[in-house]
Amino acid sequence: MPFELPALPYTPTALEPHMSSKTFDFHYGKHHKAYVDTLNALVAGTPHENATLESIIAATYGDDSKAKIFNNAAQIWNHTFFWNSMKPQGGGAPTGALAQRIDADFGGLDAFKAKFKDAALTQFGSGWAWLVVNKEGKLDVAKTANAVTPSVLGLKPLLTCDVWEHAYYIDYQNRRGDMVQAFLDHLVNWDFAAKNLGA
Ligand code: MN
């Protein structure tokens, strides 16, 4: 099989109590795995079979006849990026060049958090909230629907939070805002964002 479910960067209990091992059982073990299994079935025997995930995402975006392939490929990529956007004892404040960019482009960490949370809460239905570098080269917040991933919009992702219901329903039921707040205060991996920024 060409695509594999990537290993988690920490154990499934490592983000408790903010994100439970039961959530990982379903969100990683069922949802993320299902995207991998489905993509493998969809690309078997096609020219996409030996392509990279990134090239499949770029080649199929906006093509209605390839929507299923795009959705599963992008969801594999987005979930791997999401697991890496968190870490045990995360949260706190960024440092160095990333902190300076957040101050310059958002007016401070609290203003960034407010904008990110607003994007996460106003994404109607399933989707993702992102910290990105926009087309003008500035840090910005974006929200995307369903499987859409920033690269197809010309944006460079630094961090993401999954706001599909399956991301929070086990631990927070309908309280999406509480999950996003826990992500920002206790889970976010600023080192990963800094690495993606190249800072
Ligand atoms: Mn998800």
- Name given to the CATH homologous superfamily of the largest domain: Iron/manganese superoxide dismutase, C-terminal domain
Q: What is the annotated CATH architecture of the largest domain?
A: 3-Layer(bab) Sandwich
Bound molecules: manganese (II) ion
Task: Please indicate the count of domains.
Answer: 2
Helix content: 40-55%
Order of neighbouring strands in the sheet with most strands? 2-1-3
Which fold does the CATH topology of the largest domain refer to? minor pseudopilin epsh fold
**Biggest sheet layout:** 3 strands, antiparallel
* Parts with pLDDT < 50 across at least 5 consecutive residues: none
Instruction: Count the E strands.
Output: 3
Distance between the termini: 35 Å
* Secondary-structure element pattern, one letter each: HHHHHEEEHHH
Counting H and I runs of at least 4 residues, what is the number of helices? 8
Question: What is the CA-based Rg, rounded?
Answer: 16 Å
- Report the principal-axis shape: globular
Give the oligomer, counting copies of the same chain as homo and different chains as hetero.
single chain
> Beta-strand level of the residues, as a percent range?
5-15%
